[in-house]
Design brief:
The structure is a homodimer of 230-residue chains. Chain A is α+β, with helices and mostly antiparallel strands. Chain A folds into 2 domains: 3-143, Jelly Rolls (Sandwich), CATH 2.60.120.10; 147-226, Orthogonal Bundle (Arc Repressor Mutant, subunit A), CATH 1.10.10.10. Chain A has 11 helices and 11 strands. A 4-stranded antiparallel beta sheet of chain A has the order 1-8-3-6. In chain A, strands 2-7-4-5 form a 4-stranded antiparallel beta sheet. In chain A, strand 4 (59-65) and strand 5 (68-75) form a beta hairpin. Chain A is elongated. Chain A starts with a helix and ends with a helix. The interface between A and B is large, with 50 and 50 residues. The first copy, chain A, binds a DNA duplex (30 and 30 nucleotides) through helix 9.
DNA sequence: GCAATTGCTTGATGTTAATCAAGACAAAGG
DNA sequence: CCTTTGTCTTGATTAACATCAAGCAATTGC
């Protein structure tokens, strides 16, 4: 693992408050690997051997059952995934695959657990991270259960607009977005068409929102579902 | 707060590994209250003032948006709720109301945060609890996104069967169960009727599963969605 | 005892979303 | 270059689910 990679992930809230010693020690067993696009990193049900951090590229978390598959989240640099499985030493609940060429840090799960059982600062950082993850998934559930597919799309676009401005790129393929939003690709296409009347212009991956007020009237965004933290 | 109540909640994994001193200290600011049925305990969006523990009765966690409402979970003794909001000092994401007459322990959130910032054992217990909560919600999302409403009901019944035996009581009203499972009461009625062909007999709140193998063939339960821990 | 209420069920109907099928388009590879 | 492949879109159809309306116990309150 290059020193460069270490300084990159050092800034993560998870690691920021650790002592230099504890961090170095944790990094001793870690290594970095670059994966091509569309490579399976982990499979749901497998025992959790490594804690993962994406430092380049992007990773899709997905789940499957009975021949069906759904996208649960996409992870972009710099962020970690499957912390909960690592902590509990439990099987992965989700599978992960690279979307594009990705650089991933792998830390043996047992090292993470060992560190967290002695280091108060690290343990507190983990609490904070897990609490955030939990709240994100709860918001996601509310989105799914309380909103129609067009409403979910409208709110998704508004969230992107808030983070990236009135003109932005969908950061994933439409089929993946559809799955993430809990609908079929065909339905996403039609939902986009519905939103044209609300000033949504989509050209390939590029989206422009021309009448924010209109789409907000439809989407009715709320911090309790759509804000990152709160 | 009665000494009796303290010994009751002391057995919670959250508190079990704390020192006597730390626990007593945390309990100093806590108090117990008994609420009648159908009383609102917390409202989503409100600042998180208290960490809650149910020691008698039961509590419904629900969320609302745009005039719609959905049941997110029910909490039965002895268990806590809204730990994540407490830790993050963030607004509640869910509302809570008593289902029946309930005895609830209220611990000031600031006390919980103060304790967790100095006590390694407590902080680790919180990590474990949050990781479990997170995995529960992820399983819930998978259930919602990957299964039809009949499949969700079938798996719900199998989970109850696993915990309570072949003959068991629905522990909540059907309207609440319907909402929890992400469907309307009418649809739950019809789903139950569909499952009659698979050996599901429902009489009021009492359920009997006469052909487990049949319903399992339909429900296809998996530990990665349906097990409590794993 | 008898309204009045509440929760559940059923049927009819409407809406939403999934599926099936086909074609347009673009990127990738020989 | 042309085929191949995959994605996206569109239309037609079907399936799943929600809504509306009515009726039926069972309970509650007077």
């Amino acid at each position: 693992m290059r020193a460069n990679d270490q300084t990159e992930i050092r800034v993560l809230p998870l690691f920021r408050s650790m002592t230099e010693d504890a961090f170095d020690n944790l990094m001793r067993g870690a290594y970095v690997q670059t994966f091509p696009p569309h490579v399976d990193l982990i499979v749901e049900g497998d025992p959790c051997d490594f804690f993962h951090i994406v430092i380049e590229g992007s990773v899709e978390l997905f789940a499957a059952w009975n021949g069906r598959e759904t996208t649960m989240a996409t992870v972009s640099p710099i962020a970690s995934f499957i912390l909960a499985a690592t902590i509990k030493d439990a099987p992965y609940l989700m599978s992960a695959r690279t979307i594009e060429k990705s650089r991933i840090v792998l830390i043996p799960s047992s090292d993470v657990r060992a560190t967290f059982s002695t280091d108060l600062a690290f343990s507190q950082a983990i609490v904070d991270e897990l609490a955030s993850c939990y709240r994100t998934v709860v918001k996601n559930s509310k989105d799914l259960k309380l909103r129609s597919s067009v409403e979910r799309l409208a709110n998704y676009l508004l969230r992107q607009q808030r983070d990236q401005g009135n003109r932005f790129d969908l950061r994933m393929e439409k089929r993946r977005l559809a799955s993430y939003l809990g609908m079929t690709p065909e339905n996403l296409s039609r939902s986009i068409k519905v939103l044209r009347a609300y000033g949504v212009e989509v050209d390939g991956m590029s989206v422009t929102l021309t009448h924010i007020a209109d789409i907000e009237k439809l989407a009715k965004p709320t911090p309790l579902i759509d804000d990152k933290d709160s």
